[in-house]
């Protein structure tokens, strides 16, 4: 249970840091946010597996990028 809180707190800190990226365009912001959310979700779902974290970040980044595509 302790690890879940630590991962959740890390994800929240990362998301808070991303909100300060006002110079980014909307698609870049959504790509970064999707990667952060996907990485956190992958880490939580795989109990901190590096492969799960990186895989989640990759999938999240692609989803974030594609949702704002012209």
Would you give an account of this structure?
Pfam families: Rick_17kDa_Anti. It comes from Chitiniphilus purpureus. InterPro entries: Gly_zipper_2TM_dom. This protein is mainly α and 70 residues long. The chain has one domain. Helix content is 79%, strand content 0%. It contains 3 helices and no strands. α1 runs antiparallel to α2 and α2 (26-45) runs antiparallel to α3. The chain is flat. The termini are far apart. The model has no long low-confidence stretch (mean pLDDT 81).
Task: Write a brief caption for the model.
The chain is mostly helical and about 70 residues long. The chain contains 3 helices and no strands.
Show the helix and strand layout.
Layout: H1 2-18, H2 26-45, H3 50-67
Helix pairs in contact: 1-2, 2-3
């Amino acid at each position: 249970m302790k690890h879940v809180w630590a991962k959740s707190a890390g994800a929240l800190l990362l998301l808070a840091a991303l909100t300060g990226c006002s110079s980014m365009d909307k698609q870049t912001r959504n790509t970064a946010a999707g990667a952060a959310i996907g990485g956190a979700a992958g880490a939580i779902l795989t109990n901190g597996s590096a492969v799960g974290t990186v895989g989640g970040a990759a999938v999240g980044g692609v989803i974030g990028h594609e949702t704002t595509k012209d």
